[in-house]
Amino acid sequence: MDKQSTGQELTDGFHIVVDALKLNGIDTIYGVAGIPITDLLRLSVASGIKYYGFRHEQSAGNAAAIAGFLTQKPGVCMTVSAPGFLNGLVALANATTNCFPMILISGSSDRNIVDLEKGDYEELDQMNAAKPYAKAAYRVNRPEDIGLGVARAIRAACSGRPGGVYLDLTADVLRSALDAETARKSLIKVVDAAPKVIPDPETIARAVQLLSEAKNPLVLLGKGAAYAQADQEIRSFIEKTGVPFLPMSMAKGLLPDDHPQSAATARSYAIGQADVVMVVGARLNWLLSHGKAPLWSEKTKLIQVDISPTEMDSNRLIHAPVVGDIKSVMVALNAALKPGQVKPSKTWLDELAQRKQKNVERMAAQLNADPSPMNFSSALRSIKNAIADRPDVYLVNEGANTLDFTRNIIDMRLPRHRLDTGTWGVMGIGMGYAVAAAAVTGKPVLAIEGDSAFGFSGMEIETICRYNLPVVTVVFNNNGIYRGDPEGSPVTPTGFVRGAHYEKMIEAFGGKGYYATDSAGLTAAVKEALASGKPALINAVIDPKAGTESGHIANLNPKSALAEKK
Ligand code: ADP
Ligand code: TZD
Ligand code: MG
After folding, report:
1. Are 283 and 223 in contact (CB under 8 A)?
2. Residue 216 clears pLDDT 80, i.e. is over it
3. 222 in ligand 1 pocket by Cβ < 6 Å?
4. Disulfide check for 521: which of 178, 516, 534, 545 has CB 3.0–4.6 Å away?
């Protein structure tokens, strides 16, 4: 604050941005400093906002996005103009795709230069560039509109289906002075940023009716259900009705994976044979085969619970759409249920139990083997043993084979503890998600990373060391994307330097490196590293012959029609 010669108290754009964020409970910013936001970041820190400075905006953006998923408050990422903004935009688009509330705030060049393309340092029409990738994009052109811009960004990010919002702050607005009283009056403290969406009772009755007629009912939980923080309501519904459930990957832990009603080890069978499936906070996108055969039966009737009305019928007919926020919907469903009204048949439960048992036995042989070098199963069994008494550990996971095997082998026992590549199957979320998970929760984080996946954000281990975060990264090292080309040269489209020593990277920044070549060594390293509460990186050597190209989604890799004809 400053006083002009007139005695009028003045403030500026920098201060108004910080005041607007603080007024709305934004207590953490993730970003990368530079023109024109360096002073904005300094002021934020001086004003008591926690700041995590990254090495690349994409990781800072990913951190903000997952903070949004974990807290239901928009995670805020700040970047410089043009290239910094574009680096952050990938994370913003990923947040929108995954329905995570996030705000990307970037400094930008002045309008009179950008709009006439006069050629500025880092010139770009950022707001319009952001629009196709964001739920909303706004630009603030006057300091007295900063409060409005922040309020609109928060509301757009959190309400309805959450998503990524871009907020453009021109350098001109940041530097501008405004009298302090006008500035104070311009601030908006958002009331009820994510209003409840109460479902129409008719839609609840329709859903209960369908469930009560079902012999083979199934509940499918998606990451929207995890986001909604309706943990008790969901669990109570599932346990009261006795309906088997299946979690999508980031819904794992909503009910513990070892819950007797989990059908996860008989997934295809459960989906294929169910007569009524209630989908809660999941889209019938590619991850669910678009609701189509051969995974799904045409005869299956569907209930879908989602906050977005246009999600209904996006891939097939939804017989009982329930539009509402998941918490309100689950409360209404629980209230509407009469005792014994929904009852899965004994045959259905017995069949599922048999399938589960068969599959578990089939997997056991693989899990109990101890090959040298390690394969994915044996390495993950080692990690599973190491964290058996640590349900509190947050798990970050990316890669191809590393993702597929980890999802299947590592059980989650608490909600929102598994953070992964999500809807896009995107590589590069690893270290950003890990930093934010540790920052937001204060709990230890275990990041299980393919060696390729790790490389996309690997420089952020410096960030992890700088803030001394309890993040243990395990790199599943099989020499490449998928597994490289084990027989040929490493210089191929999928190969990396063979036998790389990733553990040395973290030592450069004062973290602890481990090199694990067998299962006992891996278990010991994970245990010790987690117990230390300090940054560590474990290079786990995996047999390059163990993985498969493209992991479990090889069917999505296009093969030439010509090859098929031959
Ligand atoms: P998954 O990848 O786990 O299958 P998706 O990301 O495809 O999950 O789906 C999440 C769905 O949850 C989206 O359709 C989104 O609209 C919905 N959703 C998010 N938050 C809520 C909420 N609070 N209430 C209802 N639906 C929600
Ligand atoms: N770029 C981005 C941003 N996302 C992607 N998903 C890809 C490229 C393509 N891709 C995958 O789909 S998985 C993967 C890439 C590059 C890496 C797989 O190798 P990995 O895992 O070492 O991480 P495994 O365990 O060796 O299979
Ligand atoms: Mg690999």
Report:
1. no
2. yes
3. yes
4. 516
Backbone φ and ψ of 371, nearest 5°: -75, 160
Distance in angstroms (rounded) separating the CA atoms of residues 155 and 160: 9
Counts of helices then strands in the chain (DSSP H, E)? 23, 20
CA distances from 536 to 246, 378, 441, 452 (A): 33, 21, 18, 18
Which amino acid residue places its CA nearest to atom 27 of ligand 2?
Answer: 482
**Cβ–Cβ under 8 Å, residues 13 and 143:** yes
For 517-529, the pLDDT digits (tens) are 999 999 999 999 9
> Residues with Cβ within 5 Å of ion ligand 3?
450-452, 478
Of 177, 152, 178, 180, nearest to 166 (Cα)?
A: 152
* 378 confidence band (pLDDT: 50, 70, 90): very high
Q: Is residue 4 scored above 60 in pLDDT? A: no
Euclidean distance between CA atoms 83 and 379, whole angstroms = 39
Question: Measured in angstroms, how far is the CA atom of residue 399 from the centroid of ligand 2?
Answer: 5
Residue 43 and residue 72 in contact, taking contact as beta carbons nearer than 8 Å: no
| 231, 256 Cβ separation under 8 angstroms | no
Ligand 1 neighbourhood includes 251 CB (under 6 angstroms): yes
pLDDT value at position 373?
A: 96
Q: Indicate if the pLDDT at residue 2 is higher than 60.
A: no
The amino acid occupying position 62 is N
Identify which ligand lies nearest to the alpha carbon of 229.
Answer: 1
Q: Is the pTM of this model over 0.85?
A: yes
Q: Tell me the CA end-to-end span of the chain in Å, nearest whole number.
A: 76
**161 Cβ below 6 A of ligand 1:** yes
50-53/75-79 β-pairing: unpaired
pLDDT at 5: 57
Residue 565 has pLDDT above 70, yes or no: no
**Number of neighbouring beta carbons within 10 Å of residue 388:** 11
Ligand nearest to the CA of 196: 1
Ligand nearest to the CA of 90: 2
**406 close to ligand 2 (CB < 6 Angstrom):** no
CA–CA gap between residue 217 and residue 220 (Å, rounded): 10
Is the CB of 452 within 6 Å of ligand 2? yes
Ligand 2 centroid–CA 137 distance in Å is: 30
Least confident span in 35-44, 110-119, 388-397, 426-435: 110-119
Does residue 283 line the site of ligand 1, with CB under 6 A? yes
Name which residue sits closest to atom 21 of ligand 1, judged by CA.
224
How far apart, in whole angstroms, are the C-alpha atoms of residue 360 and residue 526? 25
